Every structure is written in C-alpha cells, then in structure tokens.
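Colleagues,

For the teaching module next term, I've prepared a clean inverse folding example: a structure given as tokens, and then the sequence designed for it. I'd like students to try predicting residues themselves before seeing the answer, so please don't circulate the second half yet.
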C-alpha cells in the first residue's frame, strides 16, 4: 500500500515542495535533506536541516523506500554514502553524466540524439581553433554548476573566448556553437526500475535573460515533432537506464529537426503547467516512477500555459489582484524571500481553446514583471 511508503529527497527547494505536495495524496510521506532553515519543502515534508553529507541525515534517508532529488549537483559523497542502502533514482551514474555538459552531450550523441556542435575546453591549448570548430560564434558554459543563464558567456571572436574563459575562472567548460532555431521545446520521460515508460507533453518555451519566462501547451510545432521528441527521449531513457524522470530541452530547427540543448534528471520548470491542465502532473509522475507505482502519460487535458514570477532589481511585484481576476489563472508561490533573478513562484493559466489561451497569456505577461 502506498500509505506505507516514504520518499526521501536530496534538496528542499520549490521542486521538493511540489514533489511532496504530489506525494501526500498518494499516502506517501516525504523526508527532505536540506541545509537551508527556510527550505520551501519544510512546509509539507519532514525537514532534516543538515548538510547533504550529514551522516545522521543520510541515515534517515536510507530508511526510506527510495530517494530522489530536486537538483543534480548533489555532492558525490552523499550519493556514495547512500549506495547499497536505499535505491537512489536517478542513480549516480546518470547524475554524473547529466551534471557535466561535455559528458552529457557525448552520451546524448551515443544514444542517437543530435546536439549543437561543441568543443570541451579544459586546458588553455583547447582554446586554439575551438571557435572555428563550432561555426565562429558560440556560448561558453561552465561544464558544471551553471543554471538559469549563470556560468556562461556569448563569444564572437578568439579574444572574447579567451577573456570569457578567464572570467569564468578557467574551469572546465564547453563551447557550444550557436544554432538558428525556430523555437525551444521540452518534453519529459519517466521510467520505472521495471522498465515501464511514460511521457509528458511537448511544451514550447521562451526565455528572458537566461531564465524561463513562459511555457505553453500545446506547442506550435510542426506535425510529428512530439512523436520525434518522444522517440529521442525514449532512446535516451533506455540508453541511460533511467529510473525516475528526465526532462529534455530541444532546439527545433526550421527544417523540423530536433537538437537536444540540455537535460535535467528531474522535474523541470517547463513542466509546471501540468499541475493545472487536468490529469497527472510531472511531480506525481516522478513520485510514481521512483517508487515503482503504475505510470501513465501526463499530457494536459486542456490548453495550458505558465509564467514565471522572478524577483526584480526594483522589487516590483505582479498586479496580484488583476492576476487573480484573469479567468483560468492559478498561483503557485514558493515562500522564498525576494531577490533579483530568483524564482519566487509561477502562475498557471488554463483555457478551453488555444486562441483564448494565447490571448489571456498576453494579458498575464503584462501583469507579471
């Protein structure tokens, strides 16, 4: 019975909060290991306030039926301490792959997916000829720890490349060639330890200053795009022996071809709209996959969109009353202190048809700074 199951989570931020909220109706108790005393997940889960490598905290997680994560940059010592004591899903091998951009791209290509051209930059000698190899313009990204536009720089010349690598601390990086894409889309896949597989929807995304701004379902992509995205996601899930949930972000080229941009071994910001579109959410899908509960696809039943609420330099807040008055909106706040560039919440929007959704989304964007 699910009422006897306990799920451990490494990390206690908003994703852990929403995973816990999805687990509770299933009768699943949640324990999070998170050093931040103000962790959002503390409001709906047992909060172990300790470092990720704390022996007592890890011993408590080891008592759970399975452990998952809300972010991939978990200390390797924590994963090593849990190995053999409790199933960790996704596992350490997959995490080592997805947390390092060069290894991730190499593994994606080995699984049959295509990526933008890239060159690993680990030593000064690697800078020679790198920009020419990716087409003359590119993005230099740290191999690890970068997210939401952090740890990266656009470069258009050899001089800019060298200066950017210096500015990033001369740490291992990946130089990615710029591609002329038509739209950005994402799709998630869940796979249980028994090999059962299910998919999320194809979602269209827009970004602002490196942070996701909006996600929309259905995506305005050519016919066959979703089927191809599922095919690629399934191939990666199988090749990487996924246990849990994996989100793939794609560039869709004018030709219709899909290039994998990034991979996240967890629920993803672009999937938040599944909370309110009807049917399963991505959060319940990850809980089910990790605990071996029956899986099903989690495509929304209605046209659905999401707008991120992000802290601004001037401290502006959305027009909450107007947001609340707009038909089809539902607010999700993370109980986090405001800070410029910090994700503070999101607003989901549901409408009976696509035209109405897009008209209301335009209005909603005008209400959220």
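(Answer key — instructors only)
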């Amino acid at each position: 019975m699910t009422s006897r199951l306990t799920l451990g989570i490494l990390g206690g931020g908003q994703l852990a909060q929403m995973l816990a909220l999805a687990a509770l109706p299933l009768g699943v108790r949640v324990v999070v290991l998170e050093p931040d005393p103000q962790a959002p997940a503390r409001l709906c889960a047992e909060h172990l306030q300790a470092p990720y490598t704390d022996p007592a905290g890890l011993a408590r997680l080891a008592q759970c039926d399975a452990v998952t994560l809300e972010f991939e940059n978990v200390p390797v010592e924590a994963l090593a301490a849990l190995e053999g004591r409790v199933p960790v899903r996704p596992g350490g091998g997959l995490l080592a792959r997805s947390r390092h951009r060069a290894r991730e791209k190499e593994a994606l290509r080995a699984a049959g997916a295509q990526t933008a051209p890239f060159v690993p930059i680990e030593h000064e000698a690697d800078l020679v000829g790198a920009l020419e190899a990716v087409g003359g313009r590119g993005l230099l990204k740290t191999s690890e720890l970068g997210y939401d536009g952090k740890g990266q720089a656009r470069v258009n010349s050899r001089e800019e490349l060298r200066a950017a690598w210096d500015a990033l601390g001369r740490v291992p990086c990946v130089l990615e060639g710029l591609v002329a894409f038509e739209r950005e889309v994402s799709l998630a896949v869940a796979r249980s330890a028994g090999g059962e597989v299910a998919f999320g929807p194809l979602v269209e995304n827009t970004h602002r200053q490196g942070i996701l701004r909006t996600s929309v379902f259905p995506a305005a992509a050519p016919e066959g795009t979703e089927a191809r995205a599922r095919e690629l996601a399934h191939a990666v899930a199988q090749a990487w022996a996924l246990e849990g949930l994996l989100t793939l972000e794609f560039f869709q080229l004018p030709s219709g071809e899909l290039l994998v941009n990034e991979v996240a071994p967890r629920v993803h910001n672009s999937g938040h709209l599944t909370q309110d579109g009807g049917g399963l959410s991505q959060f319940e899908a990850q809980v089910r996959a990790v605990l071996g509960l029956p899986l099903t696809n989690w495509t929304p039943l209605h046209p659905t969109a999401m707008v991120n609420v992000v802290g601004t330099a001037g401290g502006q807040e959305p027009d909450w009353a107007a947001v609340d008055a707009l038909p089809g909106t539902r607010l999700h706040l993370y109980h986090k202190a405001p800070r410029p560039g910090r994700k503070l919440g999101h607003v989901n929007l549901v409408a009976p048809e696509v035209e109405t959704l897009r008209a209301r989304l335009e209005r909603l964007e005008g209400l959220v700074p």
